[in-house]
Amino acid sequence: MARGDRRRSRQWRFSDSPRRFGAQRNYRSITDHQPISDTFARKILYCRRCGNRVVSNVSHCPFCGKSLLPFFKRLWFWLLVVVLSAAATVALLFLSPTAEDVAPPQETPLPVVIGAPPTTPAKDLAVGTTVDCNNLLVTVTGVTHDLVASDGSPITTVEIQFLNKGAETVALYSTQWQLETTGGDRHDRYIGKTSEGANVSGGLDSQELEKDGTLTVSLSFAAEGPLLAVYAPDALSYTEAALVTWSVSPSVAQDPRASEGSQASETPQGDVG
Q1: Looking at the domain covering 112-260, what would its CATH class be?
Q2: Among residues 132, 103, 138, 134, which one has the least CA distance to residue 116?
Q3: Residues 9-14: what's their mean pLDDT?
Q4: Where in the chain is the domain with CATH 2.60.40.1240?
Q5: Three-class SS string for 21-88?
Q6: Are strands 199-200 and 192-193 parallel, antiparallel or unpaired?
């Protein structure tokens, strides 16, 4: 073949594909569903590089040499999958924490009654008894029953003292305290008015106690009957074994309504009316 014929052949080869030389590639899909002829119905593809129509049973474009295989059929894709799978396996085997590496949860020690044998349960303690709750010393120092709520319930005011002997600051909450009555019913702190219209509030909604710090607060409860002041050392858990209780039941003389009733009973009948 002469030189001119070869040149014309090369020009004819790319004459139907201007995209080869930098034209915009505006085709939407690489698949052409229109067959070359009625007798040759195999699917036709567009080459993404040169834009020529290529029969789908070839792996590379015969015009420009670009691979026509989808990415999931190429060698580099499966090599990448193998490498990532191996890396994930190594990470699971060697980087996952073992049972020895995971520290067991530390259990909070049960409260210890100061001045009593270690096995003494912190239940039904007398007023004035101190309990060590994980280096926080808690003492119910006094109880008064001289107020009546607006609904007629007697108000029990419990005075509490805290001493932080730990190395860290401790957060104190009023929700850690309740008053238990007969039958096991427990009442939260009372905030309201007395029968005389005075406001009853006080307490510690959220207060921090630093190392070696002391704090004295008063909490009021509106309940009737034999009473127990109940303290939960853990503000998020009311585990019965860890609860501390002090007996704060009023005597007949301390109950204001009982005193009024006794005075009324002592009034001579002749004076009535």
Answers
A1: mainly beta
A2: 132
A3: 40
A4: 112-260
A5: HCCCCCCCCCEECCCCCCCCCCCEEECCCCCCEEECCCCECCCCCCECCCHHHCHHHHHHHHHHHHHH
A6: antiparallel
Q: How far apart are CA 239 and CA 229, in angstroms?
A: 15
Q: What angle do CA 222, 144, 121 make, to 5 degrees?
A: 85
Exposure string (b/e) for 88-121, b if CB count within 10 Å is 16 or more?
eeeeeeeeeeeeeeeeeeeeeebbbbeeeeeeee
With CA atoms as reference, report the closest residue to 220 among 202, 232, 204: 202
For residue range 39-92, what is the model confidence (pLDDT) as tens digits?
A: 555 677 778 778 777 776 777 788 887 777 676 777 778 888 899 998 888 888
Summary mean pLDDT of the chain = 76
Instruction: Kindly tell me if the per-residue pLDDT of 271 is higher than 60.
Output: no
Residue 42: its pLDDT value, please?
60
Token representation of residue 21: 């030389």
Q: b/e string for 166-177 if b means 16 or more Cβ within 10 A?
A: eeeebebebebb
The answer on pLDDT for 14 being more than 50 is: no
By CB atoms closer than 10 A (0-12, 13-18, 19+), residue 40 is exposed
Answer yes or no: are the C-beta atoms of 17 and 52 closer than 8 Å. yes
- pLDDT tens digits, residue range 212-269? 999 999 999 998 888 999 999 988 887 888 999 999 987 633 433 333 443 333 333 3
Q: What number of CA atoms fall less than 13 Å from residue 233's CA on the CB side?
A: 23
- CA-closest candidate to residue 217, choices 173, 186, 169, 255: 173
